[in-house]
Amino acid sequence: MFDYQNSTALVTGASSGIGKAIAQALVERGVPTIVLVARDEEGLNILADELRHQGARAEVIPLDLTQADAPARLRETTDKLGL
Prior knowledge:
Elements: E1 8-12, H1 17-28, E2 33-38, H2 41-53, E3 57-62, H3 70-80
Parallel strand pairs: 1-2, 2-3
């Protein structure tokens, strides 16, 4: 249906629950690069390892999006990663 060959997805709340399920579903559907964002760095790293095992590029950005400077920090980090 969709061609995700050159896509990058950014998933917030990715360390558990719906966010984690969305990240997994995107990789299963062929998205090659996933950026995982949440406060729980350990949970993000566990998921990133799972997604890398499936062949995806998974980048972890531990970040509390309720903080006022979070959008700027997220942008800065994704730029540094070349995303």
